[in-house]
Design goal:
The chain contains one helix and nine strands; from the N terminus they run E-E-E-E-E-H-E-E-E-E. With 146 residues, the chain is mostly beta strands. It has one domain: Hcp1-like (Pnp Oxidase, Chain A, Roll). A six-stranded antiparallel beta barrel has the order 1-2-5-8-7-6. Strands 3-4 form a two-stranded antiparallel ribbon.
């Protein structure tokens, strides 16, 4: 009999950067991995290709409409410095909770660095550090069911 997995809800998640819960965002996208499909034609066999699996590539992760802490802001400012040739890499964990609030899935993202950020929307009635969008490039991720 198949194991029943507790339902995870996409609006209950938190983000740790460098081991510290550093931000709350309302949207996260781009957790995508895609394997190359390499076709090889064998000599003398022209009616089909042999398909072989290739490398896996990962899309950038985009975090939208978030509140950030000062540690994350410092990391962004260091990487935005024109004199910084090599970005400071961080490991990121995105945890998704189930209906009970318990962690159901995690995505561990390795060697991430910011490639794009925008915001904030300036509002007179707000005193929080806000960010409209943060895009991160990374080497790879591992998804784990907790």
């Amino acid at each position: 009999m198949a194991e029943i997995v507790s339902r995870a809800v996409s609006w209950r998640y938190y983000i740790e950067i460098g081991g510290v819960t550093a931000a709350e965002f309302t949207e996260c996208s781009g957790l995508t991995a895609q394997r190359e499909n390499n076709g090889i034609t064998e000599g003398g066999r022209t009616n089909y290709e042999v398909k072989l699996p290739g490398r896996i590539s990962y899309t950038n992760v985009t975090l939208k409409r978030g509140l950030i802490d000062l540690q994350l802001l410092d990391w962004l400012l260091k990487n935005a410095d024109q004199n910084t040739i090599k970005p400071e890499l961080k490991n990121i964990t995105i945890s998704l909770a189930n209906e009970s609030g318990e962690t159901a899935f995690t995505w561990n993202i390795f060697h991430a660095y910011p490639v794009k950020w925008s915001g904030p929307q300036l509002k007179a009635d707000s005193n929080e550090l806000s960010m409209e969008e943060l895009e991160l490039a990374y080497t790879y991720f591992q998804m784990t069911k907790v």
